[in-house]
Design a protein that fits this description.
Layout lengths: L1 H7 L7 H9 L4 E3 H6 L4 H9 L3 E5 L2 E4 L8 H10 L4 E2 L1 H7 L10 E5 L10 E5 L7 E4 L2 E4 L1 H10 L4 H13 L5 H11 L1 H15 L2
Parallel strand pairs: 5-6
Antiparallel strand pairs: 1-3, 2-3, 4-5, 7-8
Helix pairs in contact: 6-7, 7-8, 7-9, 8-10, 9-10
């Protein structure tokens, strides 16, 4: 039986460990392009799908079956569809950190200017992100809390919602007062005022 099973297997010699390491950093998800770079042809992908080792979650998006489906699967899919440098940001990052009750009707992703392109269901922001603006949360590349607060404030989020997000982020220790104030001061404008007012408000309690 084992011999017969092995005869049915495609002859390509992919780097299974390399693909697994890529997927492990992405909560088990990977793209067809990433699989191809690890030596998996289309026929080999189909073989592993038929063998119930991979699950196809969207066209050209897969998941190792030993990883459970993420509660944030839509964000993983959007991030992978937008490209290797895509970062979950703005309203979607705020919701991922559970700092907002609002569920955005599109997934917000920041990509480099050179990668700009339209994708249905995605709200693409083309911007430059410094390394200190990006972190990983729930297996996703996402803007840091301080950068997220700057972005949503700049994009026009209502002031009370910004204040609520600031209070909650500080209460849960997602960002320090010093880091938040430093980031807001560097950016200036509306976010600086709101951070300063919210911090002062907290000191009066």
């Amino acid at each position: 039986m084992l011999f017969a099973h092995m005869k049915d297997m495609p002859e390509e010699m992919p780097d299974h460990d390399a693909l697994y390491q890529i997927a492990e950093e992405q909560a088990g998800y990977f793209t067809a392009t990433q699989a191809r770079q690890a030596g998996f042809s289309s026929s080999l992908l189909s073989y592993h799908l038929d063998a119930d080792r991979f699950d196809r979650v969207r066209p050209r998006i897969y998941r190792f079956v030993q990883f459970p489906a993420s509660p944030h699967e839509d964000l993983h899919i959007a991030s992978l569809q937008a490209g290797p440098d895509a970062v979950v940001s703005h309203d979607s990052a705020l919701a991922l950190y559970d700092l907002s009750d609002r569920l955005p009707d599109q997934v917000h992703v920041t990509i480099p200017r050179t990668a700009s392109r339209r994708r249905p269901g995605l709200r693409l922001h083309t911007n430059r992100l410094e390394p200190e603006d990006v972190t990983h949360y729930e297996g996703l590349p996402v803007t840091t809390v301080s950068r997220t607060l700057v972005d949503v404030t700049t994009a026009g989020l209502a002031e009370e919602q910004v204040r609520q997000a600031i209070r909650e982020a500080l209460r849960r220790g997602l960002v320090s007062r010093e880091r938040l104030l430093r980031r807001a001061t560097a950016h200036g404008g509306r976010i600086k005022r709101l951070v300063e007012e919210t911090l002062h408000e907290g000191e009066q309690r």
